[in-house]
């Protein structure tokens, strides 16, 4: 690999690197593209595109395949797609489970494991378990894969400068150097981000907020409620990388009868644990909890869902007033709450927000569903090769 970082390159090498990155990102974000489509999208000439694609093929990042049959006159253009052997390891440590996935460059999940936990997992155990899972996959389903790195989606405050987990309160992690621990255990480049911020990025690039410039994303997980912001098409991390902690806001609760947590914050009231208790489950992944709530005939469960929806609507109304998004995306158990009656939730939010701020507003549930955090974490791990495709060489 060229020793000069991609961002520092100048001259012909810099131009070529940027063009390689443009072509790879188009295929990564938009899916398989014909050479003709890449020519049109980049404004480069056909021979340049052919040369760039050939280099990406040599680097093992893309593959070319024959085009589908077409009635168009002339020679059909080959289709360029990401190489399915290029994968990133993505992990999401939570209070009840460690989820690990191998994510291909086209966002498909090659492998997935959910490791149920009896107690809280430490940063050291997280690193050891990820390493063991990677070793197992390398000996099996990922034997032919090219693993470019590890991305972690952590439910807590992650310092943007160095990936240090400053505080993951539900995991009891404080100033945890989990990036270095995982890199040391796996031997792979490792990056760390806040889980909700990564969910927001994934849904913005590939899911419910694709093509939308102003987005509020709220993630409901076992550790509570976090959020991510897209403003003017750009993620807003905040000064230290800690923006979007909606779950720590004090909720507006109209009826005293709806309050369960005294002076608690939003995530104490709108809570996955309370939903699990309502359907008498100790632990469950997202689809299992959603199905349990859907099929439960319990009056207690129905009342708990309705109570949480009322409080959530007020919280969303406040967010809409402050940030004026075009789209609000809800993930995790918040999507389960919303899906009970999405139109009614939109109406409840509109009733508590300024009318001008709700013009054209849409509330959507995460299209990527339970894959959203893994895909977001993988996007971190893919970051270097997307900036500089030659970074994978060697």
TrEMBL record:
Protein name: ROK family transcriptional regulator
Gene3D superfamilies named among the record's database cross-references: 3.30.420.40, Winged helix-like DNA-binding domain superfamily/Winged helix DNA-binding domain
Organism superkingdom: Bacteria
SUPFAM superfamilies the record matches: Actin-like ATPase domain, Winged helix' DNA-binding domain
Protein family: Belongs to the ROK (NagC/XylR) family.
């Amino acid at each position: 690999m060229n020793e000069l970082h991609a961002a520092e390159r100048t001259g012909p090498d810099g131009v070529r690197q940027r063009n390689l990155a443009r072509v790879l990102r188009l295929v990564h974000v938009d899916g398989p593209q014909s050479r003709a489509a890449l020519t049109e999208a980049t404004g480069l000439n056909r021979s340049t595109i052919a040369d760039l694609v050939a280099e990406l093929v040599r680097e093992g990042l893309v593959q070319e395949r024959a085009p589908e049959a077409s009635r168009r006159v002339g020679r059909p253009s080959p289709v360029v797609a990401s190489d399915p052997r290029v994968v990133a390891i993505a992990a999401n440590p939570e209070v009840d489970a460690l989820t690990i996935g191998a994510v291909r460059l086209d966002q498909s999940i090659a492998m997935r494991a959910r490791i149920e936990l009896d107690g809280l997992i430490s940063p050291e155990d997280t690193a050891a378990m990820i390493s063991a899972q990677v070793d197992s996959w390398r000996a099996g389903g990922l034997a032919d894969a090219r693993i470019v790195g590890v991305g972690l989606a952590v439910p807590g405050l992650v310092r943007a400068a160095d990936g240090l987990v400053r505080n993951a309160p539900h995991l009891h992690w404080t100033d945890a150097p989990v990036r270095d621990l995982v890199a040391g255990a796996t031997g792979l480049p490792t990056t760390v981000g806040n889980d909700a911020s990564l969910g927001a990025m994934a849904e913005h690039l590939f899911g419910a907020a694709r093509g939308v410039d102003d987005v509020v994303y709220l993630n409901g997980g076992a550790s509570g409620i976090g959020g991510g912001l897209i403003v003017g098409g750009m993620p807003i991390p905040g000064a230290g990388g800690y923006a979007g902690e909606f779950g720590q806001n004090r909720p507006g609760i109209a009826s005293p009868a709806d309050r369960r947590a005294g002076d608690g914050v939003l995530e104490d009231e709108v809570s996955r644990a309370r939903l699990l208790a309502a359907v008498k489950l100790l632990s469950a992944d997202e689809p299992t909890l959603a199905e349990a709530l859907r099929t439960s005939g319990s009056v207690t469960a129905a009342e708990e869902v309705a109570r949480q929806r009322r409080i959530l609507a007020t919280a969303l109304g406040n967010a809409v007033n402050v940030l004026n998004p075009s789209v609000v995306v809800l993930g995790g158990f918040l999507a389960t709450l919303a899906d009970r009656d999405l139109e009614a939730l939109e109406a409840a939010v509109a009733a508590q927000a300024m009318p001008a701020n709700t013009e054209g507003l849409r509330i959507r549930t995460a299209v990527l569903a339970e894959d959203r955090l893994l895909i977001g974490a993988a996007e971190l791990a893919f970051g270097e090769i997307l900036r500089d495709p030659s970074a994978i060489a060697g």
